[in-house]
Write a structure and sequence with these properties.
Helix content is 39%, strand content 13%. The protein has 530 residues and is α/β, with parallel strands linked by helices. A 9-stranded parallel beta sheet has the order 5-19-18-16-15-11-10-7-6.
Amino acid sequence: MNLQRPNSSDATRTGNRSTSIVPSSGLCSRCIDGCKGNCEVFKASFRGRELIYPGPFGDVSAGGDKNYPVDYSHLNIQGYAQGAEGLPPGTAADPDHARFPLVNTETAYGWDKKVKMKLPVFTGALGSTEIARKNWDHFAIGAAISGVTIVCGENVCGIDPALELSPAKKVIKAPDMDRRIEAYRKYHAGYGEILIQMNVEDTTLGVAEYIIDKHKIETIELKWGQGAKCIGGEIKVAQLERALELQRRGYIVTPDPSDPVIQASYKAGAIKEFERHSRLGFVSQESFMKEVERLRGLGFKRITLKTGAYSLRELAQAIRYCSDAHIDLLTIDGASGGTGMSPWRMMEEWGVPSIYLHSAAYEYASILAAAGKRVPDLAFAGGFSTEDHVFKALAMGSPYVKAVCMGRALMIPGMVGKNIDRWLQEGTLPKHISEYGSTPEEIFINYEKVKDIVGAAEIKNIPLGAIGIYSYSDKLRVGLQQLMAGARRFNLGVMNRKDLMSLTEECSKVTGIPYLMDCYREEALQILKG
């Protein structure tokens, strides 16, 4: 099975000359001396390390495109023609009550102090990447009016050009973090929350102390990793002085901007960008429990954890440690992920793919529960974008999974709405949009709904990207209601693994979900024999 083709990708802006490609290497079957390119080996011959990353930085969110042997498309959703669960007593078989618009899609997470969301989705960590920074208002306001949580990712304070540090090198002023928190809170209406993620550098800079002292943030997220990469977060910067500034703040910056040879290459125009990297974190139960205790001592009401596509050993550690520490939500992010900036080959070739990781997470959670331990609320992440993905993840992880974390899927509507605004102002609206009208009121199906939520006077301050996210969330909600009604599940709490079937025996082996020809077979035979 050819799972993917190396050496050529839209993400790295490369392509093969020939249509005859060696599957294992991705090289053209005939590599000709004098070829004018543009495969990855060709381009790396003069741009070197730049070819590690998707581009252009700040304008793309890239996701790995490797075709795994088993993925969520190998599960199908069961439908039933009798019964209904999750409706008031006495109405389960009543067509007047068992209507799909009555399906309740609300969820909640938290150990003791719950956070409610109108929809079982929330954003992935939108941190220090340029695409997150410049689109933040669209993302944050869209999440707030949709009634879902937004995660403000790592390094936001550390890269802020206007950051001010104390003599002890602790944050005393972080305008970009302030802006991000205020944008969400202005339109927050009781559902969802903004939580702040923290990595090694954030801890060193005292970000936790800053956000709780100034903003009274209730939830903070510790980070072990993500599905897109197995190293710390990265961004690119184009100015030498900016790279030096980040290096002085303690970040790893490559190539070394303080090296005279590198500076000469930059001045000559060969080096056009520098990479800022976060340090690797290391996990132990003792240090984890100590940090959780420290954060609770600062006053945080909820502490969450995000972990990545590491080995099954680290997955077991995450679930067990979170149980012992009473963590409010554990997000488990599978490969290959999607992000603002990760090494492309790492996204393609590293980590445990989502459905494998999530299947193991269910198994380990069940083992813990059987031993009398309480399992923390879980969220699954890693390549989800549609309502059937949400259904499958919730059902497969039932009863432990409360929500799905979406990365690029919840970013795209924000960028689309933002660009529709620009195209309207420029008079360059694409035909496939202009066919719906020439004003926001005509183009956005939910414009009036958002106007009703925020008020007629406030709608002019709502960026169109936020209305885009609200519209996308509405599509997820209605689509999920329809799928749940078809399975006769009228609230999320009654969904379970029997609502799924595996389309292949290999999928059944991975997930523990029965092969479709075995699902309900005994019940069917009993009916025939009876």
